[in-house]
Amino acid sequence: MAFAALKKRAKSIGNEGLLVVLLILLLLATLHLMSSAVQNSDKLASIYKPLLVLNVGGLGILVGLVGYNLWRTLRGFRRRASGSRLTLRMVVIFVFLAVAPVGIVYYYSMQFLLHGIDSWFDVKIDRAMQQSLELSKASLALHQRERLRETRELMAALDLSNASTAVIGLGDARAQSGATELTLMNPDGEVLGSSNVDPTDLVPVKADSVLLQQVRQGEDFTGLLPYGSDAQLNVRVLINDPRGRKFLLQALYPLSENITRLSEAVQHAVNRYKELAYLREPLKFSFSLTLFLVLLFSLFAAVWAAFYFARRLVAPITNIADGTRAISQGDYDTQLPVPRTRDELSFLVSSFNAMTRRIAQARDETERSRAQLQAQHAYLETVLQQLTSGVMTFDDEHRLRTANDVASKLLRVDLRAQIGAAFNDLAQAGPAVEQLLDLIRSPLVKGEQGWQREITLFHPNERNILLCRLTPLQHVGGPSEGHLLVFDDITLLVQAQRDAAWGEVARRLAHEIKNPLTPIQLSAERLRRRYLNTMDETEAAVLDKATHTIVQQVEAMKAMVNAFSEYAKPPRLARHPLRVDKFIAEVLDLYASDREVGRLRVDLNAGDAEIEADPLRIRQVLHNLIKNALEAVESVERPFVGVSSRRIERNDCLFVEVRVEDNGGGIDEDQVAHLFEPYVTTKTKGTGLGLAIVKKNIEEHGGSVWVEKIENGARFVFRLPLADRRRAAEERAADTTSAAENEHS
Amino acid sequence: MRRCALFGLLLTVLLWPPWLFAFQVEKANARLEHGQFVIDVQIDYQFSDDVLEALANGVPLTTEVHIQVRRDGAWIWEGDIVDFRVRSQIRYLPVSALYQVTDLDTAERRNFVSRAAAIHALGDLQGLPVVGEDQLEKGEDYELKIKASLDIEALPLPLRPKAYISSDWNLSTGWTVWRLRH
């Protein structure tokens, strides 16, 4: 779980909280304004509708937020998201704690409100208002009846014979009666004449059609009418002519200012009271609506706050749960956002972060150690593989733990595939392994210190002599951790020791035998010269044969001693540049007759390849090999001896390879391993030193020689390195100096 | 009346069917007087029982006649040539048993002994100047839009929440469009 995701979650909670707090503050302000408007504030009443819309809209948003939070929490609960159960439980508790008191307050507020409004409208007040209205009306009706009587008298007294006298009569009658205005009209309401106390007021009060209809039907009208710029209350009378003439008379009589004022006061009070009484239910509705909005606002704000604080409180716990899960899955880099508040949760999260840091550090340390261990292991493995010794280790239960390639090669078994194998199972891997394990079984079990032994392993075509050393593996003062077996192939070393011994024998034999041979030969020849002619024929023949045999055998012994001497000669080479093919061709000139009969075939492909070598020694090598080959094919029906050369490259080094092969029947398997040892021969004649000298000469030139079996024959191969001119010159100079010193000494 | 100006209300187009509205514009006539187009409009205010009950209980009712003149086929962003409102109020005076109709723009009051006469007078707009002749182009068609409604915002505040949502209080003629040719 990424730290950024956790921090983003915490930030999103904070942002939502800020937005909703702003919304709640806005709603609070609008609710306050709305409440003020309901309480008869004229200024605010004009914005009542926007306030109402704003409140309902804000409440809708709040409901949406609560719904969203509820949906999110329930979804988390269903998905078993970490922290969802705790959040839901806390929300339920918070909501219960908030709803219960708010509901109680709302219920009693409504009760107080409704009863309070009802108490404004007492039955007695209602009756008093009605009675004051009736009283006013009765008082005014008295005035109206009086003015009706007066108006009828005026109408009856009017001379309506013509228009002018009628108008004059109207003026007098108005002045006499104290009326504000007298208007004479026909039954259709058309004004015939009018007199007003204000001469500038030329437009008389018109009677509407309903009123005219009523009067025309014979029902005189009396009523009240606010009149003039000051709206003074006047008694209005509209009557038919009591004398039956087809005229109507409308008269306006002012009421006293006092009556006007009192009437208006009563009217205003009654009007206000009736309006209030009528508005009682709407007022209850408005107050209830406002209170209900406040209730909803409080409820949803409380529910949202419950979600918000529950999530806020649970968030660090959820983070810790997620972090713990991440750690259990191996993610030790988890870091949780630390809450800003300095409380126990903050301490818990900080401790968690410190713990994960330490775990991560320990893991890194372990990783580094493991990497170092692997590097060391790889290094040791490399060292083991580069060793020329075979190395095997066994644990304290004698199971194979490690083995290098040299060990596998020497034992002719893939030991890597046997890692972990038990001792007895490992012995089944191959005969050489079995032979070796049988040898070390006893010291291994006994835990011998410094055990060392030579063992000769027999393979199908060769034998190896191994020098084995077994050492217990043990830390200082610690328990045994197994054994280390190291073995070296000392076959060549033994061979070299044997060669050296043979050389010494040869040298001494040559020295001891060669000295008396010459006197023996001379003595034999003297005997022959002195006594051959003095003896009879028979004895002379015996002497001749005997001395001849002595001389011949002495010659043979001389040849043998010379051969021994040659074998034992110290390696002093007279190196010269030799072009191999040219040199071989010169040597083969001596075998021209064999080439002519087709017994000897030559295939030289080394080109101008040149070696630094002693020509005498190489010539001796070639002679020995070719001679051996020719002797091997003497009894073969179709004899064949092949001499070939080529240039090859092995391990970035250039060599000349020369092969001498024949079809002389080949060499027995058991002789191959000892073929190049002195005094080993397959022929009835010979000293047994030919191939030993070949090997000695080739090895002294830094080359190698071996024998291969081919069909019906054998192939002898030797390789010599191509000349490095500069180094060869230096070596020649050194050889020359050494030779001079030897001669001088 | 000058003969040079041929005008008239040629066609009445009701944007909404009249039976959907409680108020009706019964007739509208326009004429040119002294370089000014004036209209005579008669609006039939069919108040609901709830509204009449409120009136009888001393609640003053305010009506508003919204008048607009626009060039026929004008783009939506073109301004109105004329846009004004005429507000009137009717109230009951219990002591004098009169219905008083007040022009709220001029404060002129008229008193009626019957409610029917007062409501009729409330809807009777005679000689209402609308637009100057010089504001209209000759040969061009114009739309005269009239909408009369009960002003809920002028009601006492406790009545308003109910009035906002009740069809008994949402009374209007809807927009009636009259074509005016100069």
Short description:
The complex is a heterodimer of chains A (745) and B (182). Chain A has 745 residues and is of the alpha+beta class.
Oligomer: heterodimer
Name the overall outline of chain A: rod-shaped
The CATH C-level class name of chain B: Mainly Beta
Figure out the total of helices of chain B.
Answer: 3
Biggest protein-protein interface? Answer: A-B, 40 and 29 residues
Task: Report strand order across the widest sheet of chain A.
Answer: 2-1-5-4-3
* Terminal-residue CA separation of chain B: 14 Å
Cα-based radius of gyration of chain B, to the nearest Å: 18 Å
Total domains of chain A: 5
CATH topology of the largest domain in chain A: Heat Shock Protein 90
Supply Rg of chain A.
71 Å
Name the average pLDDT of chain A. Answer: 82
Give the rounded overall mean pLDDT of chain B: 83
Sheet/helix structural class of chain B: mainly beta
**Annotated CATH homologous superfamily of the largest domain in chain A:** Histidine kinase-like ATPase, C-terminal domain
Q: What is the annotated CATH architecture of the largest domain in chain A?
A: 2-Layer Sandwich
Keywords, separated by commas or semicolons:
heterodimer; A: 745 residues; alpha+beta; Beta-Lactamase; 5 domains; five-stranded antiparallel sheet; 21 helices; rod-shaped; B: 182 residues; mainly beta; Immunoglobulin-like; seven-stranded antiparallel sheet; three-stranded antiparallel sheet
Detail the topology: elements first, then pairings.
The complex is a heterodimer of chains A (745) and B (182).
Chain A (H helix, E strand, L loop, with lengths): L2 H36 L3 H4 L2 H31 L5 H37 L2 H35 L5 H15 L3 E5 L5 E6 L12 H8 L4 E7 L4 E9 L7 E7 L2 H22 L1 H49 L15 H43 L3 E5 L5 E4 L1 H7 L11 H5 L3 H16 L4 E8 L4 E12 L5 E10 L1 H41 L5 H31 L8 E4 H9 L3 H5 L3 E5 L5 E4 L1 H18 L8 E10 L2 E10 L6 H4 L17 H11 L3 E7 L2 E9 L3 H20 L1
Parallel strand pairs in A: 12-14
Antiparallel strand pairs in A: 1-2, 1-5, 3-4, 4-5, 6-7, 6-10, 8-9, 9-10, 11-13, 14-15, 15-17, 16-17
Helix pairs in contact in A: 1-3, 1-9, 3-4, 3-9, 4-9, 5-8, 9-10, 14-15, 18-20
Chain B lengths: L7 E7 L8 E11 L2 E10 L3 H8 L4 E11 L10 E12 L4 E6 L4 E5 L2 H8 L1 E9 L8 E10 L9 H6 L10 E6 L1
Antiparallel strand pairs in B: 1-10, 2-3, 3-8, 4-5, 4-9, 5-6, 6-7, 9-10
